Amino acid sequence: MADKYDVIVIGAGPGGYVCAIRCAQLGMKVACVEKRETLGGTCLNVGCIPSKALLSASEKYDEARHHFQHMGIKTEGVELDLGAMMKFKDEVVEANTKGIEFLFKKNKVDHLKGAGEIVAAGKVSVGGKVYETSNIIIATGSDVISLPGIEIDEKKIVSSTGALELGKVPKSIVVIGGGVIGLEMGTVWRRLGAKVTVVEFMDNILPGMDGEIRKEALKIFKKQGIEFKLSSKVTKAVATKNDVALKIEPAGGGAAENIVADIVLMAVGRKPYTQGLGLDKVGVALDERGRVKVDEFFESSVEGIYAIGDVIAGPMLAHKAEDEGVVLAEMLAGQSGHINYDLIPGVVYTWPEVAAVGKTEEQLKEAGVKYNTGKFPFMANGRARAMGMTEGFVKILADAATDRVLGVHMIGPNVGELISEAVTVMEFDGSAEDIARTCHAHPTLTEVTKEAALAVHKRPIHI
């Protein structure tokens, strides 16, 4: 293993490992530092991948118990084997992390095991050994945050990590935070039998998403049995041997409410992970939120030290980090890279799924942009009816003057997959008419997107 590299990437999450592989593909000598035993970072080990495994498994369990009979499938005696479900989740994680090991070997990326510290520009220490490099890339991701005075013990008061490892189904869970992580993990345990209550400081769930989507999601999740305490804040959470005592206060002031839950899930957001990297010693500047300040080339205040992913500004999403990793690798190789930060899709993997790209109606109104709206429900789609999954809709926002698509917002079955068409059309400055004039296979869920595009010009066919 060489001690001198063209690139050393610190962190083997989606941003880091993708960046390392792309650098290697472009002919660079690359090493990737990772302190975790397995590759893949938070996403593959304790985030995106295991949560989707549990979401998929719990969804099938819920369908077998409550929805199959309507389709003529009798499923008496359906039982939950939580241990086997957790084993399935672990197998999915293992397959993915071993896949990264294979890709590192295939692309000749050296895996440096241990915590990395930048001791100087061009020098990284791992396990007491110093490696030299022309370029250092910080891809250390993010970590969970808690509320003041509330300690996450991963037993009674858990983060998403602990919520993926519960040994039994709790009778009750309080989720603090009505964002993506809180709703996804709340959905898993609600399906498996827990009484789930979501406490959210804002007056609605899914902050930042289109208002109409947020309203529809709240209605559907309430119907599924999740209880919501909106415009509320948790000011105290004390774990005892058997449960957690919480104090909940109205966000605008008023009488407090005391409730008890078996488990509390802290899901109020994440913070950039920069501790222990030696950034202060080498003079890497951070912003007011603790993120590494970078220019348009991802370079920090110190020449030759770069950063990507959750540790810099922008949405904390794995696909955003991956794209940044590829773009930076190509820039280091003398090529030009491209990433459009206005077109990074967001997906919530509840059921129905929620997906969005581009501007919301609220953002367009605030900016004074004139737009047309086209909306079409899954209820009027043949494939959705055949699947027995008719909740939700697709909404397209198009510029009133040019018809260019400005935003697409979806709630419904498999919209996490459907959103890609919108992203592609918008990447090429396409119009609602372009979507409407494109042939979509029948019967498919994608026809809802086509009909929404037709609805922009008030000519949908099936409604």
Overview of this structure, please?
The protein is of the alpha/beta class and 463 residues long. The protein has 3 domains: 209 residues, FAD/NAD(P)-binding domain (3-Layer(bba) Sandwich), CATH 3.50.50; 112 residues, FAD/NAD(P)-binding domain (3-Layer(bba) Sandwich), CATH 3.50.50; 114 residues, Enolase-like, domain 1. It has 14 helices and 22 strands. Strands 1, 2, 3, 4, 5, 6 and 17 form a 7-stranded mixed sheet that branches. Helix 1 packs parallel to helix 9, helix 3 packs antiparallel against helix 4 and helix 3 runs parallel beside helix 6. The protein is globular and about 65 Å long. The N and C termini lie far apart (64 Å). The model has no long low-confidence stretch (mean pLDDT 97).
Cα radius of gyration in angstroms = 23 Å
Question: What value does the average pLDDT take?
Answer: 97
Largest sheet: 7 strands, mixed
Distinct helical segment count: 14
CATH 2nd-level architecture of the largest domain? 3-Layer(bba) Sandwich
CATH superfamily of the largest domain: FAD/NAD(P)-binding domain
CATH topology of the largest domain: FAD/NAD(P)-binding domain
Q: In total, how many domains does the architecture comprise?
A: 3
- Give the CA-CA distance, first to last residue: 64 Å
Kindly name the structural category. alpha/beta
Helix content: 25-40%
Q: What keyword list fits this structure?
A:
463 residues, alpha/beta, FAD/NAD(P)-binding domain, Enolase-like, domain 1, seven-stranded mixed beta sheet, five-stranded parallel beta sheet, 33% helix
Task: Describe the secondary-structure layout.
Elements: E1 4-10, H1 14-25, E2 30-34, H2 41-46, H3 48-66, H4 82-106, E3 110-113, E4 116-120, E5 123-126, E6 129-138, E7 142-144, E8 157-158, H5 160-163, E9 172-176, H6 180-191, E10 195-199, H7 211-224, E11 227-229, E12 232-239, E13 244-250, E14 257-261, E15 263-266, E16 270-272, H8 279-282, E17 305-307, H9 318-332, E18 346-348, E19 353-358, H10 361-367, E20 371-377, H11 382-387, E21 393-399, E22 405-412, H12 415-427, H13 432-436, H14 446-456
Parallel strand pairs: 1-2, 1-6, 2-3, 6-17, 8-15, 9-10, 9-15, 10-11
Antiparallel strand pairs: 4-5, 5-6, 7-16, 12-13, 13-14, 18-19, 19-22, 20-21, 21-22
Helix pairs in contact: 1-9, 3-4, 3-6
